[in-house]
Each structure stands twice: as C-alpha cells, then as structure tokens.
Amino acid sequence: MNEDKFHKSVLVREIIEALNLKKGAKVIDATLGTGGHTSETVKEGYRVLGIDLDPLMLKLTKERQLEGCILVEGNFKDIDKIALAHGFGKVAAILFDLGVSNLHLKSIERGFSFSNPDALLDMRLNKEDQGVSGADLLNVLRKDQLEELFSRILDYRNTKEITKRVMEFRESGKITTVGDFLEICKAIRGKNGLSQATLPFLALRIAVNSELENLKEALPKAFALLEKKGRLLVITFHSGEERILLDFIEEVEKANLGKNLTEQPIRPNAEELNENPRSRSAKLRILEKHD
Ligand SMILES: C[S@@+](CC[C@H](N)C(=O)[O-])C[C@H]1O[C@@H](n2cnc3c(N)ncnc32)[C@H](O)[C@@H]1O
Predict the structure, then answer these.
(1) pLDDT for residue 106
(2) Whole domain around residue 29: which residue ranges?
C-alpha cells in the first residue's frame, strides 16, 4: 500500500482505547479523510458510517476496501439527517478529527498550501457544494468583513495590516493565485517560527469552508445521536475549534447531560510527535453522555 496516498492519522491508539466498545457497536466517523481511523475502528469489529465533504477522500478510502462500513459524501453539519438515512440514528460513539488532511495540504493544485505560488487560490473542500473560493472572498469582502475573517486566527495588529494589504492589492488588480496571497502575507510577522503565511492561509481556509460554523452546528446534533454512555471524541488543531468545543462541553455539563472525561486534553506522545510533526497541535477531548 502506498502510504503517501493516505492521510497520516493522529492519536489512533488513543482513539481506539477511548472507544472500547462491544463488537457490532455503531460508530460515526464524521471526518473520514482517507479512512485511517475508520480502518482501525473496523478492525475492532464496529460498524462505521464514514462521512466526508471531499469526494476525493471517499474515492481514496474506497480503495482500502474496508468491510463493515458505509461511506457517504456529505457535510457533518447535516450529521443528523445522514445518520438517520443510513440506520445510524442511535450510536455508541462519534469521532471528529477536524480540519483538512495532509493530502489537501500537499496537493499543489487546490490552493491550500503555499508551496505552489502558481496554483489558483481555491481552498474549497467540495467544488460542487461550495460556490466561493479563497480568491473570491479576498476580492469581494468589505474591509470590516476581511477584518472579521482574519481576526479569528490573527492578532489585532496583524489583522489590521493584512486587511490593509488586501485592500491595496485590489486597487491594482484581482487576487487570483496562491502567489498573490503570499505577496499580501509579507505584510505581517511570522510567529513562533511559523511562516508569515501559515496563519493567514489557515484563516482563509476556515472561512472558505465555513469550518467554525459547521462545527458549531454539528456538535449538538452529534451529541443527540449518542445512546446513553455514548462518547463524542473530538480532535482539534487550533484555538478557534477548541473554543467552540469547550463552550459546547460547558453547556452539556451545565445541563447535566454529560461529562467531560478529559480535564486535560490527550496529546500525541513523543514517539508520534517524532514520526509526525504535524500532530503537534492535536488535542483530543472526550465527552460522555449520561445514563
Ligand atoms: C484531519 S482529516 C481526517 C483524517 C481521518 N481521520 C483519517 O484518519 O484519515 C479531516 C477531514 O474532514 C473533512 N471535512 C472537513 N470539514 C468537513 C465537513 N464539514 N463535513 C465533512 N467532512 C469534512 C476533510 O475533507 C478531511 O478529509
């Protein structure tokens, strides 16, 4: 099997340990990717419904020929409808491994990565489903909307700087390519050894794919699908996602509907960090529904 063809999954052992279910238990993998977590889950004898917004991810996972799982193209914000349509109306566990896969970041044509300046600044996970690309957003949003977009990830000063540069760039022509956005990103400072472009690219990707809105909508729907003692497992990669998850956990605990099993999030161990440096920002939290 060509390993480069698949996403390098994070916290796999920890996920399997946290599931610890009876054979035949129903599990939803709301962010299937190339099926790294799902393939291990299937080995435990669980029945899995795997969902992904990106048709390419489904195509690649199908090549794994996994037994005992149903694969569906869809947005996890519709997890309630998708689950019901496939007989997964009550499940033992649901996994969200948020963000995009290594394959998205490595793909030189889709505009997620800044390694190919000539690529169109697209960043959509699903071109059929989403009409607006990264370049479109930068070209049409008003100044205050751009500030809102960047402020979700960047600090105040860098948000102001980069917005100013976008507005200036627009005066001389359209923003089209990754290279155009890289030019704009020169306006800001890199942080903690990150490239100048890392956080602006992340902010734009999150906006193009409505990542935070989708998560906000999906969490309560997913929690409602859990049977008693069912578990919601969520891996976050940045503070935007984490804030939404922590607010949701607080809401559930206040309403006495469930319990946070991870006072401190579970992080990759040294061995995983060494093998897969991208895992460094991964944090797993587990919420269990009450009896
Ligand atoms: C980090 S990857 C998951 C990797 C997967 N756990 C594995 O082991 O291969 C996140 C996946 O979520 C998908 N995704 C992002 N937003 C989504 C959404 N709203 N609905 C469904 N899938 C989404 C992306 O296309 C990507 O494949």
Answers:
(1) 86
(2) 3-100+211-289
Please state the rounded mean pLDDT for residues 114-130.
93
Atom of ligand 1 nearest to the CA of 54: 25
Same domain, 73 and 130: no
Which residue has the least CA distance to atom 3 on ligand 1?
Answer: 33
What is the mean predicted confidence (pLDDT) over 141-146? 98
Number of domains observed in the structure of the chain: 2
* Residues 6 or more apart in contact with residue 48 via CB below 8 angstroms: 26, 27, 28, 29, 38, 41, 42, 66, 68, 69, 70
- The SS3 of residue 253 is helix
What is the per-residue pLDDT for 80? 98
* Beta strand ranges found along the chain (DSSP E): 26-29, 47-52, 69-73, 91-97, 226-236, 258-260, 283-289
The CA distance from 49 to 38, in Å, is 9
Regarding whether 244 and 118 lie in a shared domain, the answer is no
200 and 221 belong to one structural domain:
no
Which candidate, 6, 2, 58, 13, places its Cα nearest to that of 31?
58
Tell whether ligand 1 has an atom less than 6 A from the beta carbon of residue 36.
yes
How far, in Å, is the centroid of ligand 1 from the Cα of 117?
A: 25
Q: Which CATH number do you get for residue 12?
A: 3.40.50.150
* Terminal C-alpha separation, the chain: 42
Q: Which amino acid is at 171?
A: E
- Cβ of 50 below 6 Å from ligand 1: no
Q: Are 222 and 30 in contact (CB under 8 A)?
A: yes
Among 185, 208, 231, the domain boundary falls at 208
